[in-house]
Protein: Precorrin-4 C11-methyltransferase
Amino acid sequence: MTVYFIGAGPGDPELITVKGQRLIRSCPVILYAGSLVPEAVLDGHQASLVVNTSELHLDEIITLLRAAHERGEDVARVHSGDPSLYGAIGEQIRHLRALGIPFQIIPGVTATAACAALLESELTLPDVSQTVILTRYASKSPMPAGEQLADLARHRATMAIHLGVQHLAKIVAELLPHYGASCPIAVVHRASWPDQDWVLGTLADIEAKVSARAFKRTALILVGQVLGAEDFADSALYREGHRHLFRAGAADDTGCR
Structure:
């Protein structure tokens, strides 16, 4: 018996991995986060027990997992996006380890990746940004020391900010000294869902644009020069004359031809 923490992806039912889909269709028990995972992700399942955990607290979820373990039934524990990012699986894993219940994590497509695809952007461009910072805005619970938004903004890297659209004015104020008013920023609402929507602007005008759309939750903020960059170097990977192991006539990694 195994509990599989499965990343369902950002919303589009087709953005789940083949492995994740196979496990959902084969596990006799499914526990899914119904507030963020569309039921279409479960299409084709043959489970005898399907539970939407959006209204359950941690102890109730662990009770269901333990009961499945005692029956010897595999569990598809389905989370949105990638379960290792803001998936709240850490506390579940801690309980499973204490109970001796086996588990595996099945990665999923992140909201950040879905937003980049929607914006037709590469988040790491030569000479512009080679770093992506995934973070959230500290509101109800504090951030660890050194991880406040202003600390991260000093790097001027591409940044994806979760759970922050309701605090956009404060976020803009913290980003401005480091990125500048002309820096591109996008706010994407429910990326890959049928009702997806987004706005692209600058730190100077993004608040007005988001206010006009009335985004309140389930939105991701992307900020960085990559969103508007046109003047950047080609990557070395496809550059003519660049030698690497897999290109005909190139040197191998020992330096020998």
